[in-house]
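Explain this protein:
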Amino acid sequence: MPETSSLVMRKLTIADVDVLRDLLRLFGDAFNEPETYCARQPGDAYLRDLLRSDTFIVLAALQDHAVVGGLAAYELRKFEQERSEIYIYDLAVGVAHRRQGIATALIESLKAIARECDASVIFVQADHGDDPAIALYSKLGQREDVLHFDIEVT
């Protein structure tokens, strides 16, 4: 990562609802899904409650106090052993800030959090065709080819 003293990785807390909203806008732009991430955002109380949770982890990459990247992850407590795993649900870096090591720095920061909660592994999914994400995750971990199914609840 380039020497940028103003780049900071920060775990969000209940005081960071505005930062989380900025991250949601960044996700909407990065994934080209503004409707999903911006059109019906939850209220402040909901987001504070989520940020208060021990199992929801949000990291923001801030440069000069602006959100330039981030990730949202969940700690999944296992039942077969006394351990947990961390699932990266979303990870994105703004277009102007890509290829600077920010995504790697976010994952490295998440590794420190995973060690604190004795997680055995961090896992993440990548879509076929998302070559930058696949390259990043291949560099950092071991690839497993699995099938993913969405099961409707209605």
